[in-house]
Hints:
The complex is a heterodimer.
Chain A: E1 11-18, H1 29-43, E2 53-56, H2 79-85, E3 92-95, H3 104-114, E4 120-128, H4 129-135, H5 162-177, H6 181-195, H7 209-213, E5 217-220, E6 222-223, E7 232-241, E8 253-259, H8 279-287, E9 299-301, H9 307-316, H10 325-329, H11 348-352, H12 358-369, E10 382-387, E11 394-399
Parallel strand pairs in A: 2-3, 2-4, 9-10
Antiparallel strand pairs in A: 1-7, 1-8, 4-7, 5-6, 8-11, 10-11
Chain B: H1 12-16, E1 23-28, E2 34-35, E3 50-55, E4 58-67, E5 79-86, E6 93-99, E7 111-119, E8 122-129
Parallel strand pairs in B: 6-8
Antiparallel strand pairs in B: 1-2, 1-3, 4-5, 4-7, 5-6, 7-8
Amino acid sequence: MTMPQRFEDRCIISGIGQSEVGRRMTRGVLALTLDACLEAIGDAGLTPADIDGVISWPGAVTRAEGLAPPGPGSSGPGPHAVIDALRLNTNWHAAGPETPGMLASVIHGCMAVASGMCRHVLVYRALNEDTAWRQSTERVATDAGGVTGMMQWILPFGAFSGPNWMSLYARRHMHEYGTTREQIAQISLNARRNAALNPKAVLTKPLTLDEYLSSPMISDPLCLYDCDIAIDGATAVVISDAAYAGDTPNPAIHFEAVGSALHGRASWDQWEDMTETAAMGAGKHLWSRTDMTPADVDCAQLYDGFTVLTLYWLEGLQFCGKGESGAFVEGGERIGLTGELPLATSGGQLSAGRLHSFGHLYEACLQLRGQAGGRQVPDAKVSAVSAGAGPLASCLLLRT
Amino acid sequence: MFPIPQVNDDNRAFWTGGREGELRIVRCNDCGYYIHPPSPRCPRCLGDDVEPHAVSGRGVVYTYTVNRREWSPGVEVPYVIAIVRLDEQSDLRLMTNIVACDPDEVKIDMPVQVDFREQGDVFAPVFRKAPA
Lengths: 400, 132
């Protein structure tokens, strides 16, 4: 568009791939990862010999002192395992959890291509939390010698898991803006409706508002149906030099803009205004890099590790004003498949499984390629994708 | 039981001040800014003359949640996790527990007073409803 120097203009998504996704899977997480990677490479019209860069989030980490501590099954194989398994020859590879949310790996992949370091970068995210949680009661790894790093300010108060952390934010949003559980529920109900149209979704039985409201509280105000569903599965994309766009077997997906700005404390517990998250800074960053506006977006795949995160992203990406996301989703019609802004068209993480924003990325690409089957948003040309909670946020604006 | 932090030179004042009944927060001796979590340098004036000071232990609930899920074997539920804003400085906050009251009584803006939960060598600062 108007800014030819933007790195976004120099790269495309040339291919996408996803393993089987589900619970009680028989294949191991490396097998699933390689399924997704090989599918993406083939989908891009390439072979492993063409791949010259690899990045994943978070890499093969079993503990970390930053804001994204891995839990059982949340890391998947790192780039070293994938590079060796596929005998790749790379100019560059990387992984790590201390980024602005999971989609930062995609942004880094774009930077590697735009800088000229690589021509075809493989980006993937793999999890086997379903299998791992069946084998362990731990959710966050802690050393026997005591908690270190940033988690020492959180875990000693029994705030073991994401629902605890995000419920603190959600409570403040409800307090200041009058957001209700009935409004929040619409995110969950919408996801379940869309999941019924996605053959790969994990939860497809219709969900009613009454079932939502009467489900067990986990960490109030967040209940069972506010939480996404642990699965085993892997997703991969290939980011290529934009010069390759004419040669892709499937329509190339373009990057209109990305957002990764962190404007606030790098902390879950010290975040100043808990009626918003880092989505606010990342969203502002994204719109500062394009002439498009929120009105140009045909469907949005906003992060929904917990329902309320979608509300924070609606405000952060300026689909509504600050504090207005509850009213925006009220009744659910606006965010449905035939509404003004279809959300989580795959069923999202709440119903299709916790692919940790890469499920949303994959769905955005399917929609823009016109390959979303029974849940296709007619004539989808622009889609927003986002990842993260609290102090972690990254987002992409993709277009045909 | 809840996990306990690993005590070291950087965090000892915070995690063990409760032995003497004090909530100790690192403060900049040059500009007076309270710094939490502790840091060797003041983020406001960038000075490095910082040391722990006892604070009043009074504050208000900024936000809270009632955890009802048993995440770890042996942890009794429900319990209240909160962010408390200390009276000394508007951005001086702690994640903590609100103890010794019915979870349903906890409200945003409720005044609270520090107490300490002893676990081994650690005295975790928790808060009680302040007397009216």
